[in-house]
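Peptide deformylase
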Amino acid sequence: MILDVIHYPNKILRKISQKVLNFDSSLHTLLDDMYETMLAKNGVGLAAIQVAQPLCILLVNIPREDGEQYKEDLLEIINPTILESSGEILWNEGCLSVPGFYEEVKRFNTITIKYHDRTGNECQGQFEDFTAVALQHEMDHLNGVLFIDKLSLLKRKKFEKELKKNGYKVV
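Tokens:
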């Protein structure tokens, strides 16, 4: 089922997500619905809070060189924690909750995270480049942080100006 993606400036996006404790069928349904929603909205990542579920859940599915996203590449990340980070990368980011706005954000180039999979197994992985950027972007959502919060004052003003021009109230 395709879920509604909430947009900035909706206050729900600022909520801190709660740890997942039950790895049951309702979690599996949410993960499946989030995946379907992410693909339908042409996203490469989606956090549960973006579909109004304040849970520490995120998905990332980076397209391959042919531009396609394959389900076997899907990362379902639950209760993530960054263990190590290194390097810097600038990436032109966008967000399904901030449609139509893209800006460069500085992120770690390589991260190691621990997390749970959909059945509750503890996992650990090292990720780099676009995958690391996408994971950090989605993990920020779990803490109520949007990529626009990381912009310089000048770029933030540009964003707010565009938002006002499109009839939105800036918060």
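The first helix runs from residue 25 to 40.
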